[in-house]
Specification:
By secondary structure, this protein is mainly β. The chain folds into five domains: 27-114, Immunoglobulin-like (Sandwich), CATH 2.60.40; 120-205, Immunoglobulin-like, CATH 2.60.40; 211-290, Immunoglobulin-like, CATH 2.60.40.10; 293-418, Jelly Rolls; 436-492, no CATH class. A hairpin with a 2-residue loop joins strand 39 (357-366) and strand 40 (369-377). The radius of gyration is 52 Å and the shape is rod-shaped.
Length: 492
């Protein structure tokens, strides 16, 4: 090592055999060095500190370590064991030196304790019960072994289409199908190689009641029979409400509080109604048809006959069968009193193997005095029920059924007459004779082939005398009042 000394008289250079050692000054500062790795609950971390002189020269002094007990513990060597509560602790750890001329020197640092690895996933709410098409926002909580919230993860939400749909942020939209769905919605949380799932149970309740369905919707009931009806309340998506109390009413016969219809001998097409209150009264309607006349042709012909085109007319266990040879085959009933009143419904159960075509139902006071209606026949060999509305008074007379216009076998199981209860006065009392009047002839108050009877609002009775083309008027007591009409095409 060379040393040069300069002055007024010049300079001299000296060669020194030993190096010059410059030592640091006294301690001036303590600096806590950040750890190499993050501080994580459940793991130890080594802290270190640097002691510096005034000129930032590092001094090899050892330091004394202290830490807030709520934050953790630290060894004399600086090995730190954090607490189990992840958080940021300000100025929580201290390094100090005390044996210096300038007195104790200390330094403090913040401690950030991070959560441990993912250990538990909770979904909130864990159970919901909402109406169909409703919505619910779900949230997920990810925790480590010590219950600290984990924030660094990836989530994947899922549900079934029958349950609904869910967005990537946990916003759930319910489906239209009511039901109980255990684990109906799920979320998977991924942190590195760790994957943990959680699920929520979902119950979807029906929406507001929009209709009431009655079973059966339409049924035939014997005059002295009964029929049990049931009602179901449904929302717009056909979800069923349970535990609904229904109020039952019927337009004829009678009905019990649990929906049992009792015909009570009252013929007609009766309306059966079930009602419930859901903010407003909502009702469902069914029909109970109680026939005034039933021809059960599986038990006999009951006087029904046919023409020459309806050959081999026979009574079978299935009904009245015949072989149509085409043309205009038909069968007709015997003369029936009080056949249906005003605007009755005729119901026919039949099957046909004849080629498809039309049917005709004729009705009137005699075979030669009738009106008719036409419909289609399904000729597939299967049983079908045909319903025909008659818009006319049908007090007495015959029915004629033209079942086909093509060759084939035809079977009629039954024919029923359903009177219109709104136009027929029904009485629970047995009918009894009141009075009678009139005789056959062409004199005053006499009839010649009387065919029709009508009344007016005053109770007067009008009778048509068909053979002599007259109308006769009587009082309600049968007193002859007037007659008018002659044969011809003019007025009167």
């Amino acid at each position: 090592m060379k040393l040069t000394v300069s002055g007024p008289g010049g300079s001299d250079t000296f060669v020194l055999a030993d190096a010059i050692e410059v030592e640091p000054g006294p301690a001036f500062d303590v600096r806590i060095l950040p750890p190499d790795d993050p501080i994580v609950v459940g793991r130890t971390t080594l802290f270190s500190a640097a002691v510096m002189d005034e000129f930032d020269n590092r001094i090899s002094n050892t330091v004394d370590w202290e830490v807030d007990p709520a934050v953790g513990v630290i060894s004399p060597e600086g090995m730190f064991t954090p607490s189990t509560i992840a958080s940021t602790y300000l100025q929580a750890i201290t390094a100090s030196i005390t044996d210096e001329p300038n007195g104790p020197i200390t330094s403090s640092a913040d401690v950030v304790i991070s959560p441990g690895p993912l250990s538990e996933v909770n979904l909130a709410p864990a159970l919901i019960s909402i109406a169909v098409t409703g919505s619910q926002l779900f949230s997920v909580e990810a925790l480590d072994d010590y219950g600290n919230q984990v924030t660094e993860f990836v989530s994947a939400w899922s549900t079934s289409p029958v349950v609904g749909s869910v967005s990537g942020t946990g916003e759930y939209k319910a489906s239209t199908t009511a039901g109980n769905y255990p684990a109906g919605l799920a979320v998977e949380i991924v942190q590195g190689s760790i994957k943990i799932s959680a699920s929520a149970d979902i119950t979807l309740a029906p929406g507001a009641i929009e209709r009431i369905a009655i079973f059966p919707e339409s049924v035939d009931v014997d005059k002295n029979g009964t029929q049990q009806f049931s009602a179901t309340a449904k929302d717009r998506y056909e979800n069923v409400h349970t535990n609904i109390e229904f109020a039952w009413t019927s337009s004829g016969g009678m009905i019990t509080g649990d929906g049992e219809f009792i015909a009570n001998g009252e013929a007609g097409r009766h309306e059966v109604r079930a009602s419930a209150f859901a903010g407003e009264q909502i009702s469902g309607v069914a029909t109970a048809d109680v026939a005034s006349i039933v021809w059960d042709l599986s038990k006999g012909t009951f006087g029904w006959t046919g023409n020459n085109q309806a050959q081999n007319l026979r009574s079978t266990t299935e009904g009245l069968a015949f072989d149509s040879i085409g043309g205009d085959p038909w069968v007709w009933s015997p003369l029936v009193q009080n056949i249906g009143g005003i605007d009755p419904v005729i119901k026919i159960r039949m099957k046909s193997n004849a080629s498809s075509g039309h049917h005709d139902l004729f009705w009137g006071p005699s075979h030669g005095n009738y009106q008719s209606t036409t419909g289609e026949v399904i000729a597939d060999g299967a049983w079908h029920e045909i319903e025909i509305q008659i818009s006319q008074q049908l007090d007495y007379g015959v029915l004629r059924w033209d079942a086909a216009n093509m060759p084939g076998e035809i079977t009629i199981a039954w024919i029923k007459v359903i009177p219109n209860p709104s136009k027929v006065t029904m009485s629970e009392a047995a009918p009894s004779f009141v009075t009678k009047w009139g005789s056959e002839g062409d004199g005053a108050g006499q009839f010649d082939n009387a065919t029709r009877v009508a009344t007016d609002s005053s109770g007067n009775v009008y009778v048509t005398s068909n053979a002599d083309h007259k109308i006769l008027k009587f009082s309600a007591q049968g007193d002859f009042l007037a007659t008018w009409g002659t044969s011809g095409s003019g007025n009167g």
